[in-house]
Model the fold of this input.
Amino acid sequence: MVKDALPCTILWVTTDARMPLSRERVLRAAVGLADEHGLRALTMRRLAEELGAEAMSLYYHVAKKEDVLDGIVDVVAAEINEAVGRVEPSPDWKAAVRQRILTARRVFLRHTWAPSLFETRSSTSTEVLRYYDTLVGLMRNGGFSYDLVHHALHALGSRALGFSQEPFDPSAGESAEVPVDLAWQLPNLVGMLSEIAHDDPGSTLGWCDDQAEFEFGLDLVLDGLDRLRDR
Done:
């Protein structure tokens, strides 16, 4: 019985290991690697190991690491578009935009490395453009002129995609506490930092980017835009 089962097991492992590479398979493996180990762990050698392939074989599907990074932006943005596409549409523009942005944010919370990557890409992802195109359409249907939509996108900044940029950006593993030798010169900042606390690390995409702070800023912008629209 054991002898009969063994060749089947070997065949399954061999077939899986020799599954043909494709650009999609490479990029999805890169996303999985970043999810598990962080973006810094994403190297061509590590990616090849993850796929059970030689590093050189990856270059048939991705030109270089920068191509991988551009590609995984598209993968995550496509995931966002798929998620927001399932959202029940609301006739109220503000509710529709808010729900869309918070849905996109939930995707980023599954890929906490992605915001920093989205901010650094010099080329524009087609999937990101698709996301913004629908967002503009929602605002236009809500009574906004193109000029006001343009102002709105600038005001929202990265919040339109579901994450916010940090006022402080400590390096990984460091705190944002004021150095002791400067504390006496900065009483207001020290007072603020001594009181703030974020108790939900699962809602964080940066040092201070938790869900409550994100929604606070988002609602301020959307409420202000609503008043401008009604003028």
User: Anything to note?
Assistant: Residues 1-17 have pLDDT under 50 and may be disordered. The domain at 1-62 is CATH 1.10.10.60 (Arc Repressor Mutant, subunit A). The first helix runs from residue 2 to 17.
